[in-house]
């Protein structure tokens, strides 16, 4: 069985996720924790649930999803996994972080790359990896068939999609990624996005104004 815990951190209201299985092995996705109280909230849950953090993954490397990377790596001694196309995206964060008020941001580098991985193990459970560029050049989503969940980063939101006006973004590429890689998942798949509430593939296929059957944009 795979379990998911969500947190909402930083001024961007970014969703950070911890997924873990019955063996208590845990993976942290997109740690947006920057302030001490946010870090404390995350570490308290890990301690309370007696989890063993084994990996850190960025679905993509925009600032709001990587603010806690250094803290997680230092606290738990785990590797950071990203797609290779996100390396320059991650590198650039230290340049513009101060302009957003994040003067204490600590730069990190990837330890492992997910380019050639089709799956990722969380304890005894397995996540399917899908490549979904458009919002960011090396964006990945992670699907667990057993529980029907998808950690979607900033690709598909409830009633919306990720913005594509940032460096490396492309609107048509994102639409194609969603239709080919996400809308081919079962309709009942629960989508956990990088911001806002969860949704389902079936709901978005019908109602999403950007990629649904009656898309207006």
From TrEMBL:
Record's protein name: MBL fold hydrolase
Residues annotated as domain Metallo-beta-lactamase: 13-195
Pfam families listed in its UniProt record: Lactamase_B
UniProt keyword terms in alphabetical order: Hydrolase, Metal-binding, Zinc
Keyword presence, Hydrolase: yes
PANTHER family reported in the protein's UniProt record: HYDROXYACYLGLUTATHIONE HYDROLASE GLOC (PTHR46233)
GO molecular function: hydrolase activity; metal ion binding
CC cofactor: Zn(2+)
InterPro entries named among the record's database cross-references: MBL_Glyoxalase_II, Metallo-B-lactamas, RibonucZ/Hydroxyglut_hydro
């Amino acid at each position: 069985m795979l379990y998911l815990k969500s947190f909402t951190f930083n001024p961007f209201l970014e969703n950070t996720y911890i997924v873990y299985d019955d063996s208590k092995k845990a993976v942290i996705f997109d740690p947006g924790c920057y302030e001490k109280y946010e870090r404390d909230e995350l570490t308290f849950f890990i301690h309370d649930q007696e989890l063993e953090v084994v990996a850190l993954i960025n679905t993509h490397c925009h600032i709001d999803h990587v603010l806690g990377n250094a803290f997680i790596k230092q606290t738990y001694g785990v590797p950071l996994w990203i797609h290779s196309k996100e390396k320059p995206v991650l590198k650039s964060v230290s340049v513009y972080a101060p302009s957003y008020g994040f003067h204490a941001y600590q730069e990190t580098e990837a330890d492992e790359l997910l380019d050639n991985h089709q799956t990722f193990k969380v304890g005894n459970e397995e996540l399917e990896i899908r490549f979904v560029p458009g919002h960011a050049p090396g964006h990945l989503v992670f699907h667990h068939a057993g529980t029907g969940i998808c950690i979607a980063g900033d690709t598909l939101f409830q009633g919306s999609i990720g913005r594509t006006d940032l460096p490396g973004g492309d609107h048509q590429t994102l639409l194609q990624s969603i239709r080919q890689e996400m809308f081919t998942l079962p309709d009942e798949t629960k989508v956990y996005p990088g911001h806002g509430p969860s949704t389902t593939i079936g709901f978005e296929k019908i109602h999403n104004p950007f990629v649904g059957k009656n898309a207006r944009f």
